[in-house]
Amino acid sequence: MDSIKEYDLVVLTKDISAIHKQTQIPILLRRGQVGTVVMDFEEQAFLIDFADKEGVTYAMETVDKKYLIPLLYQPSSVLAS
């Protein structure tokens, strides 16, 4: 698996509870939700910024690495056996 770094886009692999940043109302961040890594906690967990299409943050949560997949934009090279 590719390593996750600050400013990477990532996808949640499971639903997690959060608090809406503006309203302080509990919300559910769904599996497949996309966010941006803003802080790395020793590559074990990451602070993720979840924002709408206009770039307005609606949640910021610390998520364990095992529940994140980095978005990939380039293929990996295949080694011949």
From TrEMBL:
Pfam families listed in its UniProt record: DUF4926 (PF16277)
Source organism, top-level taxon: Bacteria
InterPro entries listed in its UniProt record: DUF4926
Protein name: DUF4926 domain-containing protein
Species of provenance: Crocosphaera watsonii WH 0003
High-level lineage: Bacteria, Bacillati, Cyanobacteriota, Cyanophyceae, Oscillatoriophycideae
